[in-house]
Amino acid sequence: MNITIVTVGKLKEKYLKQGIDEYVKRLSAYAKLDIIEVADEKAPEELSITEMEQVKQKEGERILAKISSDTHVIALAIEGKMKTSEELAKQLDQLATYGKSKIAFIIGGSLGLHKDVMQRANDTLSFSKMTFPHQLMRLILVEQVYRSFRINRGEPYHK
């Protein structure tokens, strides 16, 4: 299975990089994982609704340019579907069973995802009703993908 995480912005925090690197290493036994960073749109703190949409649109165009037409897309969004770790594991297993070997998880920037990205998504996923920094979501997502493979293989980890 080829899993891609397309995310807005560069990861600067060393502790997050170390955690992500550890899970990427662990995941290599189960799947190929690529993390693609697209540039975030520079914008002032105070934005009008129109300016926010423009920022999300530009970031969305960069995201969509990285996704091939045969990729199953799961967008991370607060309004997405909440799942247990076991449910996510089952979804990944079913995608593999039905020949969907290319999966992309999308993590938007600080303003979220543009409607065009949400329309391209085959599914949505929410980890919580809470807001998390998008950099931290990378670590949480990679850990959950790793956990999913362990669950699907019946290996001890998720208890």
How many domains make up the coordinates? 1
CATH C-level category: Alpha Beta
> Could you tell me the mean pLDDT?
93
Which structural category fits the helices and strands?
A: alpha/beta
CATH homologous superfamily, by name?
A: SPOUT methyltransferase, trefoil knot domain
Order of helices and strands: EHEHEHEHEH
Q: Work out the helicity level.
A: 40-55%
Kindly estimate the percentage of residues that lie in beta strands according to DSSP.
15-25%
Gyration radius (Cα, Å) is 15 Å
Low-confidence stretches: none
CATH architecture heading: 3-Layer(aba) Sandwich
How far apart the termini lie comes to 24 Å
How would you sum up the major sheet? 5 strands, parallel
Question: Strand order, biggest sheet?
Answer: 2-1-4-3-5
Catalytic activity: pseudouridine(1915) in 23S rRNA + S-adenosyl-L-methionine = N(3)-methylpseudouridine(1915) in 23S rRNA + S-adenosyl-L-homocysteine + H(+)
Keywords: Cytoplasm, Methyltransferase, rRNA processing, S-adenosyl-L-methionine, Transferase
Protein name: Ribosomal RNA large subunit methyltransferase H
Function: Specifically methylates the pseudouridine at position 1915 (m3Psi1915) in 23S rRNA.
